[in-house]
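Format notes (please read before filing issues)

Several people have asked whether sequences and structure tokens are stored in separate files. They are not. Every record keeps both together, in the order shown below: the sequence lines, then the token lines. Line labels are part of the format and must not be stripped during preprocessing.
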Amino acid sequence: MGNAARAIIIENDKILVMHRNKRGKEYFTLVGGLAKPNEPIEQALAREVMEETGLEITSSRFVFAEKHRQPYNDQYVFLCEVAAHDAVALQSTSEEAIMNRIDTNSHTPMWVDPKKFAKLPFITIELQKAIIDAIKNGFPNEPVQLS
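Then the structure lines:
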């Protein structure tokens, strides 16, 4: 079991999500992914966000943690600011872009309105609810343990 970093990125009243179709199962999650062995979680966050969107993180704050039983990864969720950018897109050399080309898995980063976000088939319902609450009432100053 490893650790994964996830990014909450909100711009122009929209939240960035990753639409997944994994062997016919469609769902949404936050941008991010698994840290490499001995890779600091903040470094994994920056790398995964860049690979999956082309966005450069300029600041981040750890806001939520989710502990999961094996074989799933513990999730460290950060509220992030990003540098000015054009459209988001998978980078051609990312694992996700490669899977999109050779497999039935697909990954599509997209911006969604928070009202639509609340209705998405999100992979972790407790995290989805925490994000919806934080958008309305403010993100926590100290990390909140979910699950």
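For reference, the curators noted about this record: The chain has one domain: 3-146. The chain has four helices and eight strands.
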